[in-house]
Task: inverse folding
């Protein structure tokens, strides 16, 4: 039996760590060739060393239009178009309103909103018939997580953008969905509390009805579903992978 993505080409932004890395590994295991971006060269080299010919690594900052140009030059050079896009890069940090600076607003929205928009826009000329796009949202987009408002607002924005893009791209047969992870054990999550990683994970797990933080592979399974033919009727949807934290 064929793997789900045999012969397909995928793009994953922020694919060198955490959820994005789990998606890159899963897509490659399912037969895809994966174009992977991140800003730092060493993690890109590690992915290339692990997955070899299954990946093309491109050092690019998706919040920077020049970086996005570099990224899609690499996609063009490969010459196979794109069947799947996971616009995943989207950092955040805990900060109460009183401490938020203008630069924080620009940084968070620069990657999460501008970067996601430029990534999906840049992919448009390369999308093969039947292509599927997944954007990474967050349960923080609900606005219920204290000190996470800026990040949450940026994630609410990308969820809204995704619904709009789904309508715009439906006539092309291109699907666009959001995966909405809850707390997932990644360097991005533990990096929110440097030096207090275990305490943070314990505290977060206590608030998750499933009783634990999630694994990046569990989010990657949902992303695979959303780019595969198994979700062919889904567009403009949000798939929540959160151990029920949203309704806790
Ligand atoms: N972990 C969670 O609990 C959780 C929950 C909900 C949603 N999410 C979302 O899931 C996504 C992945 O989070 P994660 O926890 O897996 O993060 P992570 O472990 O910190 O990984 C982030 C990845 O994005 C890359 N990256 C960051 N900024 C970038 C930029 N401007 N351009 C290109 N690449 C960039 C990083 O590489 P470089 O640093 O080298 O650029 C890295 O590969 C994010 O959108 C996040 O908001 C995470």
Result:
């Amino acid at each position: 039996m064929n793997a789900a993505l045999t012969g397909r080409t995928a793009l994953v932004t922020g694919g060198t760590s955490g959820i994005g890395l789990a998606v890159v590994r899963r897509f490659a295991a399912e037969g895809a060739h994966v174009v992977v971006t991140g800003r730092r060269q060493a993690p890109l080299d590690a992915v290339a060393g692990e997955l070899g010919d299954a990946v093309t690594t491109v050092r690019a900052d998706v919040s920077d239009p020049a970086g996005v140009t570099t990224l899609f030059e690499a996609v063009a050079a490969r010459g196979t178009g794109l069947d799947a896009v996971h616009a995943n890069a989207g950092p955040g940090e805990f900060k109460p309103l009183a401490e938020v600076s203008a630069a924080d607003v620009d940084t968070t929205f620069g990657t999460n909103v501008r970067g996601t928009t430029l990534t999906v826009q840049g992919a448009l000329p390369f999308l093969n018939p039947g292509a599927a796009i997944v954007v990474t949202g967050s349960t923080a987009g609900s606005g219920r997580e204290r000190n996470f408002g800026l990040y949450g607002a940026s994630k609410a924005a990308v969820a809204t953008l995704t619904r709009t893009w789904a309508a715009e791209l439906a006539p092309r047969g291109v699907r666009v969905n959001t995966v909405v992870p809850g707390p997932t054990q990644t360097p991005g999550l533990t990096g929110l509390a440097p030096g207090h990683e275990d305490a943070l994970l314990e505290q977060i797990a206590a608030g998750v009805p499933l009783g634990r933080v999630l694994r990046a592979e569990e989010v990657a399974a949902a992303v695979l579903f959303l780019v595969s033919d198994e979700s062919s009727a889904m567009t403009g949807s949000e798939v929540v992978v959160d151990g029920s934290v949203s309704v806790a």
Q: What stands out?
A: The CA atoms of residues 59 and 128 lie 24 Å apart. Helices lie at 18-29, 41-51, 65-78, 102-123, 149-169, 187-190, 197-206, 216-227. DSSP finds eight helices and nine strands in the chain. The chain has a mean pLDDT of 97.
